[in-house]
Design brief:
This protein is mainly alpha-helical. The protein has four helices and two strands.
C-alpha cells in the first residue's frame, strides 16, 4: 500500500491517522461515560477502614485526569491530522458519491475536525481553567491553576461537542455505508 494519498485512494499515513483517532476516541468515550462505574470497581473499599464513598469520589476524580490526558493526546493527533490533511492532496472523489453527497461529506469532515478540537479543549478548560476543585485520594485536593472560564460554559461546549460529533459521525458513516465507499479507508 502506498504511504501517500493518490489516484489509488487514501495512503497508509492517512489511514493510520484515521484509525488511530477512531481507536483513541473509542477509548476516551468509553472511559468518559463509564468513569463513575470504573471508580466504583477500582476504589470501592478502603482496607484501612476509610469511607468507600470517599474513595470512589476520589477515584472518579483521578480518572478525570486520565481522561484529560487522553483528550490532550487526541488534541495533538487532531493537529497532526489537520496539518497532514492540509499538506497532502486527497484522492479523487469516489464515483459512487454524487455532487450533493460530496458537499455533505465535505461539510461533515469540517464538523468532525472541529469537534476533535472543541471536545478536548473544553474538557481541559473545565479541568484546568474553570476553578472547579477536585478531591483526590488520601483527602488531597486538586486546585486548578486558573479560574478564567465558566465551568457551565465549558460543560455546555463539552456536551454540545459530543452531540455534534455523534450527529456528524452518523452522517459520515451513513454516507460511507450507503455509497459503499467504506473500503477506501480500510
Amino acid at each position: 500500500m502506498p504511504m501517500l494519498n493518490g489516484p489509488h485512494g487514501y495512503g497508509g499515513v492517512t489511514r493510520f491517522l484515521h484509525w488511530l483517532t477512531v481507536g483513541l476516541l473509542l477509548i476516551q468515550l468509553v472511559l468518559g461515560y463509564t468513569m463513575e462505574a470504573v471508580a466504583e470497581a477500582l476504589f470501592e473499599e478502603d482496607s484501612s477502614g476509610g469511607s468507600g464513598g470517599d474513595r470512589v469520589r476520589a477515584g472518579d476524580d483521578q480518572l478525570v485526569f486520565l481522561h484529560a490526558g487522553i483528550g490532550a493526546l487526541i488534541l495533538v493527533l487532531a493537529s497532526v491530522r489537520l496539518l497532514w490533511r492540509l499538506s497532502t492532496p486527497l484522492p479523487p472523489w469516489s464515483e459512487r458519491l454524487g455532487p450533493v453527497a460530496r458537499r455533505v461529506e465535505s461539510w461533515v469532515e469540517r464538523v468532525l475536525y472541529a469537534t476533535l478540537f472543541v471536545i478536548p479543549l473544553s474538557g481541559i478548560g473545565l479541568l484546568f481553567f474553570s476553578g472547579e476543585e477536585r478531591e483526590l485520594e488520601n483527602r488531597r485536593e486538586w486546585f486548578p491553576p486558573l479560574d478564567v472560564v465558566s465551568d457551565d460554559l465549558m460543560l455546555v461546549l463539552h456536551v454540545g461537542g459530543h452531540l455534534t460529533f455523534y450527529a456528524a459521525l452518523l452522517v459520515h458513516v451513513g454516507l460511507a455505508v450507503r455509497s459503499r465507499t467504506l473500503s477506501r479507508m480500510l
